[in-house]
Amino acid sequence: MAQSTDNQRTSYPLAAYNFRVKVGEASMSFTEVSGLAAEREHVTYAHGLSFQEGPVIMTFNSKRFTPVTCKRGTVLGADPLFLFNWLDKRDSRSMEVSLCDATGAAVLAWKVAVAVPVSLKAPAFSATTNDVVVDTLELQVREVSVVRL
Fold it and tell me: What is the C-alpha R_g of the chain?
């Protein structure tokens, strides 16, 4: 028996290609965002009865930065200086990556409280290929959370 559309929507994974990125209040177009992670620092603690009970792993909320990479194709109609100006100002901004369903509605969002650009790399230029021009923005981010919308 075939499943209903609602059952399929809740049972099957979402496609990774359907996402939106917002940096501060500006909507951005990226072809790839990688490295988003919510991490906790941990310490293995061996107490007096560890020989009998085993060691304990303790976790801590961390304010440590983790690297995130964003790639985007260069488009004539887009503002080419937005990312360079952000890198030049060295200011931190919030960031949100929203995963969308088949209708384009955002269903999950990875929210980043602090995102700081550290590198903007131009593509390799070569007359022997016809590859698309892709800029690579490297960020350091912290305080990543996941929210169901």
Answer: 20
